[in-house]
């Protein structure tokens, strides 16, 4: 039972200023007098009428090309200039004008190890976007991984090339290139030369659980813009749903991000993982997830410039418990050790759903990739990648051989020495990552931020 108390004041007394509450229980904006009493607002603020709240609020001036400092504010054009106002109250066209977001989903979260915890809220639980009640295409249409666009030759995920070192107990990339792969003749696509400089190739990798549509899809376009805005060479995709999930639908999604890129996508999954790549995907497949039934771990072997190939594993771990996530990590490590040649590069990345960097799964992953910081951050120095920016959900973890070639992510005038956590609410100026819009990272069903790392890899 909820008891609500109302206080009523009579007479000519002035009512106290009331803070406008935020969803998380905090406050930011305060009431002000329409007569413009100087004491109402702080320096740099103006008293404006916000129609959605039907009241006058003190709002901070802002740069139209930059995000507001507070994650629950957007820079909106108003009378007399641009001001930071509560998200969703901007009187100008919405940042994602034309997108038809679903108002949200209902459904009971699945209990047990087969639940999906991928679209979790920031407290680690499900958000009503649980997969038990969703109705995406669960693999009935041809899978993108089995019929990729021209040049991709994935297999079913069980037969790796003759160079597989079965049972090796070393890091998949610790051998520093003394045994180049036999397939060293690289058939580069048109985009390869653009990233190659003096015998080195810059490889930008992005972890992307950026679905914001109904049934955890990329249809509304927020995630598409976020990926396109940072121009990655390889994208580790989670919740890789689009349209009716047919090959043509997924190809349409990929072409919106980067026309002509190769892609693979796991089969028979409700919220599939997958890979998008500038360079040809030589093989691809999926390794079983021992703790969930609606997705597996999607891997791809990519023909990057140079004699060594790059293996990437796109993962989406459970939110249910740290022990389940560690069991999933153990399964991945076991597959890496038996399938990935020691002289190839390796990256494991995606949505780990981890609450902190001390979780046991990081120690497990450390057997084949590096997990130590410093970690990617946003413009404000935050490493959190969940919606509330307080948990390190999403990661890109490279083996030692690949990690030693990591370099700062440079976009326009911005430099991120250890990699970027992409949040449209904090990135400034947004013009550097066009077509990203300020509201993309706070779209209704968006639960994660993208993560970007760059590697300057020798092409010899």
3D architecture notes:
Residues 225-411 form the Endonuclease/exonuclease/phosphatase domain. Residues 94-201, 372-391 are annotated as: Disordered. Residues 159-178 have a biased composition (Low complexity). This protein is of the alpha+beta class and 460 residues long. It folds into 2 domains: 19-86, no CATH class; 131-458, Endonuclease/exonuclease/phosphatase (Deoxyribonuclease I, Chain A, 4-Layer Sandwich). The chain contains 5 helices and 21 strands. It has helices spanning 222-230, 247-257, 322-339, 360-365, 400-403; strands at residues 19-21, 27-30, 45-50, 55-61, 73-78, 81-86, 196-197, 200-208, 234-237, 262-265, 274-277, 281-287, 297-302, 310-316, 345-351, 394-398, 406-407, 409-411, 414-416, 420-422, 450-458. The strands form 5 sheets. Strands 7, 8, 9, 10, 11, 17, 20 and 21 form an 8-stranded mixed beta sheet that branches. A 5-stranded mixed beta sheet has the order 12-13-14-15-16. A 4-stranded antiparallel beta sheet has the order 3-4-6-5, with no helix packed on it. The chain starts with 18 loop residues before the first strand and ends with a strand. 48% of the residues are buried. Residues 1-18, 22-27 and 91-194 have low confidence and may be disordered.
């Amino acid at each position: 039972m909820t008891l609500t108390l109302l206080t009523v004041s009579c007479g000519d007394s002035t009512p106290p200023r009331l803070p406008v509450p935020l969803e998380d229980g905090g406050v930011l904006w305060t009431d002000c007098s329409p007569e413009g009493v100087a004491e109402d607002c702080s320096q740099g603020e103006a008293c404006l009428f916000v129609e959605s709240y039907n009241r006058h609020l003190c709002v901070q001036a802002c740069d139209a090309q930059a995000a507001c400092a507070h994650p629950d504010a957007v820079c909106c054009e108003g009378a007399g200039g641009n001001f930071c106002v509560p998200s969703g109250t901007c009187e100008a066209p919405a940042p994602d004008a034309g997108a038809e977001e679903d108002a949200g989903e209902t459904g009971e979260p699945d209990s047990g190890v087969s639940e999906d915890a991928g679209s979790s809220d920031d407290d680690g639980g499900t958000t009503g976007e649980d997969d038990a009640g969703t109705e995406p295409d669960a693999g009935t249409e041809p899978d993108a991984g089995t019929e990729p666009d021209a040049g991709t030759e994935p297999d079913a995920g069980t037969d790796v090339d003759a160079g597989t070192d079965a049972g090796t107990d070393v890091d998949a990339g610790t051998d520093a290139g003394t045994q180049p792969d036999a397939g060293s003749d690289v058939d580069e696509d048109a985009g390869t030369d653009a990233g190659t400089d003096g015998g080195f190739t810059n490889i930008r990798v992005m972890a992307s659980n950026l679905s914001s549509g109904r049934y955890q899809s990329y249809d509304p376009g927020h995630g598409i813009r976020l990926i396109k805005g940072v121009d990655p060479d390889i994208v580790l995709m989670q919740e890789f749903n689009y349209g009716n999930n047919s090959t043509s639908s997924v190809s349409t999604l990929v072409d919106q991000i980067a026309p002509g890129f190769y892609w693979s996508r796991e089969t028979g999954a409700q919220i599939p993982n997958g890979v998008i790549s500038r360079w040809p995907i030589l093989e691809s497949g999926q390794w079983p997830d021992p703790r969930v039934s609606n997705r597996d771990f999607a891997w791809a072997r990519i023909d990057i410039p140079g004699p060594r190939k790059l293996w990437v594993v796109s993962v989406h771990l459970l939110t249910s418990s740290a022990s389940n996530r560690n069991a999933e990590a153990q399964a991945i490590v076991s597959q890496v050790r038996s399938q990935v040649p020691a002289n190839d590069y390796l990256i494991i990345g995606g949505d780990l759903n981890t609450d902190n960097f001390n979780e046991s799964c990081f120690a497990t992953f450390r057997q084949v990739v590096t997990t130590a910081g410093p970690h990617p951050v946003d413009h404000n120095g935050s490493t959190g990648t969940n919606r509330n920016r307080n948990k390190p959900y999403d990661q890109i973890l490279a083996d030692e051989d690949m990690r030693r070639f990591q370099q700062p992510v440079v976009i326009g005038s911005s430099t991120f020495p250890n990699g970027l956590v992409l949040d449209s609410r904090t990135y400034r100026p947004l013009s550097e990552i066009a077509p990203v819009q300020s509201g993309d990272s706070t779209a209704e069903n968006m639960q994660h931020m993208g993560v970007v790392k760059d590697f300057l890899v020798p092409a010899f």
